[in-house]
Design goal:
Layout: E1 2-10, H1 13-28, E2 34-40, E3 44-47, E4 64-66, E5 73-76, E6 80-86, H2 89-92, H3 96-112, E7 119-121, E8 124-130, E9 144-155, E10 158-166, E11 186-187, H4 199-213
Helix pairs in contact: 3-4
Length: 219
């Protein structure tokens, strides 16, 4: 079974990383259960393995943490639910592409419980919301905003890092980076879209949809 851990208040990034690394090692050794950890961070930026320095527009705005997860720059802060997933792909099938797809499907299913349709776009990491109320992009495509980010790392086929979904963060805090290296598109949140969703509401949906999409660890 998967252990669910929910932490109130703000959790420092270093403390979260220390916990994730230790738990992932314990899972790999067969000494601990898989774990999904729901938390919020204080305002900070993280750089993935593909991050480009020029995408860090305001390096002095918030602390910046270099990570070894996939992806580029992301923002974490109050009002954003971070879900760190420490899951054993040795028992879930050693298929990284499928695992990322399952994480995307988990986010999309969760958004669907609030009657919101999320999209995956080729060449753009994360989950996106179409904005027909906005002007089209320079290329003539429909405007879209990013509502969730995904970035994982594997060690001995156990995952850590995970996903983040914007509930009600300060969207101006994203201005200090080029989120995931993607320009021409904006960032949104559940509340920004007019949905009065609380963090508790999202947590319930995340757990329900996790069981539907990801399932328990196969025996």
């Amino acid at each position: 079974m998967v252990e669910w851990k929910i932490t109130d208040g703000l959790t420092g990034y270093d403390a979260a990383l220390t916990f994730m690394e230790a738990r992932a090692e314990a899972i790999a050794r067969g000494e601990a259960e898989e774990c999904v950890w729901l938390l919020e961070h204080p305002p900070l930026y993280t750089a993935g393995t593909s991050a480009k320095r020029e995408d860090l527009r305001d390096p002095d705005r918030f602390p910046v943490y270099d990570t070894r997860r996939g992806g580029q720059y992301t923002y974490h802060g109050p009002g954003q639910r971070v879900a760190y997933v420490m899951l054993d792909l040795n028992r879930r099938g050693k298929d990284v592409r499928k695992f990322v797809h399952d994480l995307e499907s988990w986010v999309i299913a969760t958004l669907g419980t609030f009657n919101l349709k999320g999209h995956i776009r080729e060449g753009r990491v994360g989950v996106w919301i179409e904005r027909p109320d906005r002007p089209k992009t320079v290329s003539g495509a429909m405007a879209e905003d990013k509502i969730a980010a995904i970035g994982i790392r594997l060690r001995r086929w156990v995952s850590f890092h995970g996903i983040s979904i914007n509930v009600e963060p300060d969207l101006e805090h994203f201005d200090g980076i080029v989120p995931c290296g993607i320009t021409d598109y904006g960032v949104t949140s559940l509340v920004d879209l007019g949905l009065p969703v609380t963090m508790d509401d999202l947590d319930v949906a995340l757990r329900q949809c996790f069981e539907e999409v990801m399932g328990d660890t196969p025996t």
